[in-house]
Write a structure and sequence with these properties.
Elements: E1 21-26, H1 30-46, E2 54-59, H2 65-75, E3 80-88, H3 94-112, E4 117-124, H4 127-132, E5 134-136, E6 139-140, H5 141-160
Parallel strand pairs: 1-2, 1-3, 3-4
Antiparallel strand pairs: 5-6
Helix pairs in contact: 1-5, 2-3
The chain binds ligand DLZ.
Length: 161
Amino acid sequence: MSSLYYQYRAANELDASDMRFGIVVAEWNQQITERLLEGALNELQKHGVKEQSITVMHVPGSFELIYGCAEMARAGLVDAIIAIGCVIRGDTPHFDYICQGVTQELAKQNSAGRVPVIYGVLTVNNEAQALERCGGQLGNKGEEYALSAIKMINFARELKN
Ligand code: DLZ
């Protein structure tokens, strides 16, 4: 097996005590995004992340996650970024433009390879679907975002070692 083989680790084996995280949170649909943030913070704490190693910044809406994450990466202070937003379908095509814009631009930031950006944007048809995903029947997706961020930092570190 190659020495570059990425080692799979179960969630309970992930130690993130020396990792730094940036979290950019959209204020639109705050009743959802703040719960996702809470889920992410709880999960990071479970894996030993120090409070001072987490930078949380807010932007007005999901569209501004693009600039927020790009600037967070440029600042060079974190090992991974979690973008948290919630876009709820409305009566106009706005939903599609925001979702496409954010998804494509965050994808580009990932392929630029500066730091991994975790896509924590719920794109849902209604508020009920969002509530199910931020602490309801389907759990809190914020926890998954945090785990993905830890795993991506490990991925980058293993490539460098
Ligand atoms: C304008 C708008 C609308 C209609 N819906 C949402 C939404 O469901 N979720 C979200 O995060 N942001 C929404 N926004 C705001 C845009 O993301 C953005 O903040 C504005 O278009 C200003 O650039």
